[in-house]
C-alpha cells in the first residue's frame, strides 16, 4: 500500500523509464479528447502518470504486478497505430498508450516485461524447491523402482546447494557477497 501513495515525480525512486505517452481516457466525453498526453514514470513495481513532468500529484498510479504488456496496433487507425501498446491484467482495467515512436512503444513493453519476468523468476526459484522438498521423503520410502529413486536423489543433491544459496540471497545477503565466500 505504501507504494500507491501519491509522490512527486522526483520522489518515485528507482525510475526505470519515463517520458510522455498518450493515454487513452477511460470515459472520454464528446468534448474531451480520447487520448491525453501524460508524463509516465515506471519504477520497479508501479506505473505513475502525471498531467506533465512538473506535476506533484499523479493523475493515477497502478501496480504492474500481474499485468502483461504488449504492442497493440489495433488501438488506433491513424499513422500512429504502430506506436500503441497496452497493459492487461485479467479482472482489472486495461491501460492503453501511444508512444512517440514504434521504437519507444517497444522499449516500454520490453522494460515492463523485463520487470515482470524478474518478479516471476524470483517466485519460480523457490516454488519448485519447496515442491521437491515435500516429495523427496515419499519418493525415498514409497518408490519400488530403486534405480529411479537413486538417480532422482543424485540430481536433487546436485541442484540443492544452488537453489538453497539463491533462496538465502533473497532474504539475507546480496548475491555477489554469497558467491565470493565459496
Arrangement of strands in the largest sheet: 4-3-2-1-7-6-5
The gross shape turns out to be: globular
Rg (CA only): 23 Å
* CATH homologous superfamily descriptor of the domain at 15-24 and 33-120: Pleckstrin-homology domain (PH domain)/Phosphotyrosine-binding domain (PTB)
Q: What is the third-level CATH name, the topology of the domain at 15-24 and 33-120?
A: PH-domain like
Concise synopsis of the structure shown:
With 182 residues, the protein is an alpha+beta fold. Helix content is 41%, strand content 21%.
What report would you give on this structure?
This protein is α+β, with helices and mostly antiparallel strands and 182 residues long. It has a domain at 15-24 and 33-120: Pleckstrin-homology domain (PH domain)/Phosphotyrosine-binding domain (PTB) (PH-domain like, Roll). It is 41% helix and 21% strand. It has three helices and seven strands; from the N terminus they run βββββββααα. A seven-stranded antiparallel β-sheet has the order 4-3-2-1-7-6-5, with helices on one face. Helix 1 packs across helix 2 (146-171). It starts with 16 loop residues before the first strand and ends with a helix.
Q: Main traits of this protein?
A:
SKAP1 protein; alpha+beta; 182 residues; PH_domain
Task: Summarize the topology.
Blueprint: E1 17-24, E2 35-42, E3 46-50, E4 60-63, E5 68-71, E6 84-88, E7 95-98, H1 102-142, H2 146-171, H3 175-181
Antiparallel strand pairs: 1-2, 1-7, 2-3, 3-4, 5-6, 6-7
Helix pairs in contact: 1-2
Amino acid at each position: 500500500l505504501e507504494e500507491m501513495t501519491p509522490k512527486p515525480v522526483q520522489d518515485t525512486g528507482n525510475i526505470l523509464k519515463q517520458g510522455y505517452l498518450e493515454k487513452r481516457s477511460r470515459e472520454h466525453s464528446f468534448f474531451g479528447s480520447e487520448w491525453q498526453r501524460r508524463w509516465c514514470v515506471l519504477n520497479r513495481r508501479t506505473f505513475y502518470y502525471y498531467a506533465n513532468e512538473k506535476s506533484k500529484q499523479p493523475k493515477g498510479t497502478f501496480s504492474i504486478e500481474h499485468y502483461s504488456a504488449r504492442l497493440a496496433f489495433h488501438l488506433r487507425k491513424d499513422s500512429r497505430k504502430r506506436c500503441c501498446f497496452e497493459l492487461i491484467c485479467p479482472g482489472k482495467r486495461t491501460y492503453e498508450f501511444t508512444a512517440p515512436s514504434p521504437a519507444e512503444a517497444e522499449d516500454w513493453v520490453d522494460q515492463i516485461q523485463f520487470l515482470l519476468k524478474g518478479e516471476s523468476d524470483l517466485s519460480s526459484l523457490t516454488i519448485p524447491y519447496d515442491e521437491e522438498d515435500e516429495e523427496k521423503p515419499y519418493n525415498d520410502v514409497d518408490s519400488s523402482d530403486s534405480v529411479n529413486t537413486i538417480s532422482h536423489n543424485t540430481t536433487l543433491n546436485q541442484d540443492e546447494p544452488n537453489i538453497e544459496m539463491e533462496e538465502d540471497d533473497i532474504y539475507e545477503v546480496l548475491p555477489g557477497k554469497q558467491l565470493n565466500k565459496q
